[in-house]
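pasting for ref
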Amino acid sequence: MKKIKLNTVKSKMVAGVAAVTLFSGVGFVAANTDAGTALKGWYDGQFNNASADVAQKVGAYGNGKISGLYNEYNVLKNSAATSIQTTKTTGATVATIKINEAKGTHIKSVNDKKTALLNSMDAEFAGVYAFGIAELNEVGNQALKYANDDLTPFVNGKGSEALGELHTELTNVTNNAKLELQVAINAAKGELTVQLNSKKDVTADNLKKAIDNKIKELRDAITKQKNDLVKVQQDLITQKAQKMEADAKTDLDAIVSSINK
């Protein structure tokens, strides 16, 4: 806020009085034997002194008042800034607590589900493995039964060939079982990874949107409060300035009126 420099008004008044004095002096020199002119010269000197005194008093009075108003305005302005900052800090603290609570809830849910899947994974794959072993044992038992039930001469003649074929068959079954088991494990891992990444991204996006919405809500509320507070202070300053202007004019009129007394 700029201070109003009343000394500028004072300077203009003194300059105007000096100009009147100069012209009056010239007239006096041109007709120094005229009594009316002499009286005018005396009056002009008295008027100059009175005008200078009025300008000095009014300038000091006005400058003192405006300095006080300037200080008062700065106090009000600083108070508005403090109120706004306090509201912002409180809003941010409350919003942070709520956001962290929501985040904690989502993270706990994800962790609980992950733990449950990990705990059940071993049992599920153990079942797959047990099934493969049972199938393998069943095939082996059938082979042994066939060998025992066959004729001894045939077994003796075909024994080596049968054992070789059995070994090959069982090896293939075992390898296939291992392959299928590994495929199942990889598929489970892939599915769990996709689900985890998807839920992670969705959770992060939701939290970001919540943060953006809360920031907008706080910004709008704080801006409105600031505008309301500033409007109140502006109205008070305007009213004060108008009242002081009217009081100053009244005082000036009183001084002017007292010149002839």
